[in-house]
Amino acid sequence: MLLDGDMISLHKVSLDKRTLCVVHKLGLIEYSHAYDMQSRLLRERLDGQIPDILLLLEHPPTITIGKSGKLENVLASPEQLAEESISLFFVDRGGDVTYHSPGQLVAYPIIDLKKRGRDAHKYVHDLEEVIIRILNDFCIGACRDDNHAGVWVKDEEVAAIGLSVRSWVTMHGFALNVNVDLAQFSLINPCGFSDRKATSISNLLSQDIPVEAVIERLLAHFSEVFNTPIELGTDIVVGSYL
Length: 242
Hints:
Elements: E1 21-28, H1 31-46, E2 52-58, E3 62-65, H2 78-83, E4 87-90, E5 97-100, E6 104-110, H3 120-137, E7 143-145, E8 148-153, E9 156-166, E10 169-177, E11 197-198, H4 201-205, H5 211-225, E12 230-232
Parallel strand pairs: 1-2, 1-12, 3-4, 9-11
Antiparallel strand pairs: 2-6, 3-5, 6-10, 7-8, 8-9, 9-10
């Protein structure tokens, strides 16, 4: 866990390593800290100082509202959110309302799409494909919704996707429910849907699944779908960031 004021430090890489995607597993981290990290890494990726990056983490209980979101899709009062120590953020990603908590695997790719055809729709499709393959590994049949980004098992959402793209470099990503407390999703209309519910891998399998087991499958399928070698980052430095 990174504490208040702690940040991630990445060494710059040589030109011959810029085809890699470097993965950093950060554990539980406050949403605001993760956002600051993404913003910094986005700038460095735009400048060509670092390769593609994939941040994998979990958040404490947090509700985020995207650019097309509506506050009325947060069903809890400000008092209830404060009482349950649930943070609320308005953020610059697409999509509506999303709930984050421990037991949910969050992936934030910082990827240059200029080398991938400058096709944001294909990028979303590829993220969905990664998630669908993960779920297939756990014998869960999942599907897309042609009208809404994300991954579904029948009419229940198991993974939400919300992105922003700046000068063809991506930010934000997806949240895959692994062992989350699904009761907390009653605090929102997930992704703005009042007639659909959220589900999780553990709920679908009626047993707990370790997040680390899901990460293992995610890395394999991310490498396959995005046709990129994966390297685990070893240069995380806990300390101040200027």
